[in-house]
Design brief:
Elements: E1 2-8, E2 11-16, H1 26-38, E3 44-46, E4 52-55, H2 63-79
Antiparallel strand pairs: 1-2, 2-4, 3-4
Length: 81
């Protein structure tokens, strides 16, 4: 479902697409963002089709907190198969 990963520095974006058709998956991105917020992780949705999940952690974020936030996202993705 990951069509592309791009960014500069701390600002990263993950584009989500249907693996077979490459069609954008805005509902998936929205569902991920909503669930992440419920678990205390704020993400941004972006892109022309709303199918991009953006990350912009503070420059001063500690490694432990960054890993915790990314774990929340990976757990959500694993549950949304």
């Amino acid at each position: 479902r990951v069509g592309d990963i791009r960014g500069r520095g701390a600002m990263m974006a993950v584009e989500m697409v249907d693996p077979e058709t490459k069609e954008p998956l805005p509902k998936l991105v929205n569902d991920i963002a909503v669930e992440a917020r419920k678990q205390g992780v704020i993400t941004l949705t972006a892109g022309t089709y709303g199918n991009v999940l953006r990350f912009l952690p503070p420059v001063v974020i500690g490694e432990d907190l960054l890993q915790e936030g990314l774990s929340v996202i990976t757990d959500i993705l694993a549950e949304m198969k």
